[in-house]
TrEMBL record:
Annotated ranges, domain EF-hand: 63-98
PROSITE patterns with a match to the protein in the record: EF_HAND_1, EF_HAND_2
Keywords assigned by UniProt, alphabetized: Calcium, Metal-binding
InterPro entries given in the database record: EF-hand-dom_pair, EF_Hand_1_Ca_BS, EF_hand_dom, S-100_dom, S100_Ca-bd_sub
Gene Ontology cellular component list: extracellular space; perinuclear region of cytoplasm
Protein name stated in the entry: EF-hand domain-containing protein
Molecular function terms, GO-annotated: calcium ion binding; calcium-dependent protein binding; transition metal ion binding
Entries under Pfam families matching the protein: S_100
Amino acid sequence: MVSYKALLSVKLPFQLDMESAINVLVAQFKTFASKDGSSHTLSKEEFQTLVASQLPNLVKNASDPAVIDNLMSSLDENNDGELTFQEFWQLIGKLASTHGGFSQ
Ligand SMILES: [Ca+2]
Ligand SMILES: [Ca+2]
């Protein structure tokens, strides 16, 4: 398994915009997910901190606990109260679609 520090030390010869964006998403997820014992999943508290600090312009009322509750339950497919990267990723997809004008 690659540690977060090791990941940061890997410098690509040049950074393409889309590859950089993926690196940032993964690194941010890992940073926020590792604040408690389950370092590979986001608890509700970790999810709220991530959304409020990283996505405040795209997620309306990110500081409202009800908004976070609704978002969390819509993303948490197996209802275990934790978001894996795969579960969390759906939010990025939805926000990107809406932001880019791709949603119906
Ligand atoms: Ca965690
Ligand atoms: Ca889950």
